[in-house]
Amino acid sequence: MKNLILLISCITIVGCNQQAKKIENGFVSIDSLRDAHLAGWNNKDSAALMNSLADNAIVMNDSLIHRGINEIASNWVSGGIKVLSNIKTFSLVKEANETIAYDGGTYSLDLTIPGGPVLKEKGNYSLVWTRTNKADWKLILIHIEDISRMPDIK
Fold it and tell me: What is the pTM of this model?
Protein backbone atom coordinates (compact mmCIF):
# COMPACT_ATOMS: atom_id res chain seq x y z
CA MET A 1 0.00 0.00 0.00
CA LYS A 2 2.87 2.37 0.83
CA ASN A 3 4.37 1.72 -2.61
CA LEU A 4 1.05 2.57 -4.29
CA ILE A 5 0.76 5.85 -2.35
CA LEU A 6 4.38 6.69 -3.18
CA LEU A 7 3.78 5.94 -6.89
CA ILE A 8 0.62 8.10 -6.98
CA SER A 9 2.46 10.93 -5.21
CA CYS A 10 5.34 10.79 -7.70
CA ILE A 11 2.96 10.79 -10.69
CA THR A 12 1.09 13.76 -9.23
CA ILE A 13 4.28 15.74 -8.63
CA VAL A 14 5.66 14.99 -12.11
CA GLY A 15 2.30 15.80 -13.71
CA CYS A 16 2.11 19.14 -11.90
CA ASN A 17 5.66 20.03 -12.94
CA GLN A 18 4.96 19.21 -16.60
CA GLN A 19 1.75 21.24 -16.53
CA ALA A 20 3.57 24.18 -14.93
CA LYS A 21 5.99 24.29 -17.89
CA LYS A 22 3.10 24.60 -20.33
CA ILE A 23 1.28 27.42 -18.56
CA GLU A 24 2.33 31.00 -18.09
CA ASN A 25 0.09 33.88 -17.00
CA GLY A 26 -2.74 31.36 -16.51
CA PHE A 27 -2.61 30.32 -20.16
CA VAL A 28 -0.12 28.62 -22.48
CA SER A 29 3.65 29.14 -22.29
CA ILE A 30 4.54 31.17 -25.35
CA ASP A 31 8.21 30.38 -24.85
CA SER A 32 7.51 26.64 -25.07
CA LEU A 33 5.40 27.09 -28.23
CA ARG A 34 8.11 29.18 -29.90
CA ASP A 35 10.91 26.88 -28.75
CA ALA A 36 9.11 23.81 -30.14
CA HIS A 37 8.72 25.52 -33.52
CA LEU A 38 12.37 26.64 -33.58
CA ALA A 39 13.53 23.16 -32.60
CA GLY A 40 11.86 21.83 -35.74
CA TRP A 41 13.96 24.19 -37.86
CA ASN A 42 17.22 23.83 -35.93
CA ASN A 43 16.94 20.03 -35.77
CA LYS A 44 15.93 19.84 -39.44
CA ASP A 45 12.79 17.97 -38.36
CA SER A 46 10.19 18.84 -40.97
CA ALA A 47 7.58 16.54 -39.37
CA ALA A 48 7.80 18.38 -36.04
CA LEU A 49 7.79 21.71 -37.86
CA MET A 50 4.70 20.86 -39.90
CA ASN A 51 2.98 19.52 -36.78
CA SER A 52 3.30 22.98 -35.21
CA LEU A 53 1.22 24.55 -38.02
CA ALA A 54 -2.55 24.86 -38.39
CA ASP A 55 -4.00 23.47 -41.63
CA ASN A 56 -5.01 26.99 -42.71
CA ALA A 57 -1.79 28.71 -41.60
CA ILE A 58 -0.33 31.63 -43.52
CA VAL A 59 3.38 32.40 -43.85
CA MET A 60 4.43 35.86 -44.99
CA ASN A 61 8.14 35.82 -45.74
CA ASP A 62 9.33 39.13 -47.16
CA SER A 63 7.23 39.54 -50.33
CA LEU A 64 6.10 35.89 -50.53
CA ILE A 65 2.86 34.63 -49.05
CA HIS A 66 2.20 30.91 -48.55
CA ARG A 67 -1.34 29.81 -47.67
CA GLY A 68 -2.29 26.46 -46.16
CA ILE A 69 -0.21 23.63 -44.86
CA ASN A 70 0.42 21.99 -48.27
CA GLU A 71 1.70 25.19 -49.90
CA ILE A 72 3.79 26.00 -46.83
CA ALA A 73 5.31 22.51 -46.87
CA SER A 74 6.20 22.51 -50.56
CA ASN A 75 7.17 26.16 -51.07
CA TRP A 76 8.73 27.16 -47.77
CA VAL A 77 9.65 24.28 -45.45
CA SER A 78 11.03 21.80 -48.00
CA GLY A 79 13.69 24.24 -49.23
CA GLY A 80 14.22 26.20 -46.04
CA ILE A 81 14.85 23.20 -43.81
CA LYS A 82 17.89 22.33 -45.96
CA VAL A 83 19.59 25.73 -45.75
CA LEU A 84 18.54 27.38 -42.47
CA SER A 85 20.24 26.72 -39.14
CA ASN A 86 21.17 28.30 -35.84
CA ILE A 87 17.87 30.19 -35.60
CA LYS A 88 17.65 32.36 -32.49
CA THR A 89 14.95 34.78 -31.41
CA PHE A 90 14.70 37.71 -29.04
CA SER A 91 11.12 38.30 -27.97
CA LEU A 92 9.98 41.92 -27.66
CA VAL A 93 6.27 41.34 -27.08
CA LYS A 94 4.25 38.26 -26.19
CA GLU A 95 0.82 37.62 -24.76
CA ALA A 96 -1.75 34.85 -24.52
CA ASN A 97 -5.31 34.23 -23.50
CA GLU A 98 -7.43 31.10 -23.63
CA THR A 99 -7.71 31.05 -27.45
CA ILE A 100 -4.81 32.97 -28.99
CA ALA A 101 -1.13 33.58 -28.29
CA TYR A 102 1.43 35.75 -30.04
CA ASP A 103 5.12 36.49 -29.95
CA GLY A 104 7.05 39.12 -31.85
CA GLY A 105 10.62 40.26 -31.89
CA THR A 106 13.88 39.89 -33.74
CA TYR A 107 15.65 36.82 -35.07
CA SER A 108 19.02 35.77 -36.40
CA LEU A 109 19.92 32.69 -38.42
CA ASP A 110 22.50 31.14 -40.69
CA LEU A 111 21.56 30.64 -44.33
CA THR A 112 23.86 28.18 -46.06
CA ILE A 113 23.54 28.35 -49.83
CA PRO A 114 24.75 25.08 -51.43
CA GLY A 115 28.19 25.75 -52.84
CA GLY A 116 28.12 29.29 -51.49
CA PRO A 117 28.97 31.19 -48.33
CA VAL A 118 27.12 31.07 -45.03
CA LEU A 119 24.99 34.19 -44.83
CA LYS A 120 24.01 35.73 -41.51
CA GLU A 121 20.43 36.92 -41.66
CA LYS A 122 18.67 39.14 -39.14
CA GLY A 123 15.15 40.41 -39.11
CA ASN A 124 11.82 40.76 -37.40
CA TYR A 125 9.25 38.05 -36.75
CA SER A 126 5.68 37.66 -35.59
CA LEU A 127 4.15 34.32 -34.60
CA VAL A 128 0.46 33.81 -33.81
CA TRP A 129 -0.97 30.59 -32.41
CA THR A 130 -4.57 29.57 -32.02
CA ARG A 131 -5.98 26.94 -29.70
CA THR A 132 -7.65 24.07 -31.52
CA ASN A 133 -10.75 22.12 -30.52
CA LYS A 134 -8.38 19.42 -29.25
CA ALA A 135 -6.89 22.00 -26.84
CA ASP A 136 -3.49 22.01 -28.51
CA TRP A 137 -1.88 25.12 -30.01
CA LYS A 138 -1.07 25.57 -33.71
CA LEU A 139 0.65 28.38 -35.56
CA ILE A 140 -1.87 30.25 -37.69
CA LEU A 141 0.39 33.12 -38.82
CA ILE A 142 4.12 33.48 -39.33
CA HIS A 143 5.46 36.81 -40.53
CA ILE A 144 9.18 37.12 -41.21
CA GLU A 145 10.91 40.25 -42.42
CA ASP A 146 14.59 39.92 -43.29
CA ILE A 147 16.42 43.18 -42.67
CA SER A 148 20.02 42.14 -43.36
CA ARG A 149 21.74 39.31 -45.12
CA MET A 150 25.52 39.41 -45.02
CA PRO A 151 28.29 36.85 -45.66
CA ASP A 152 29.82 35.24 -42.59
CA ILE A 153 33.30 36.80 -42.61
CA LYS A 154 35.71 35.17 -40.21
Answer: 0.79
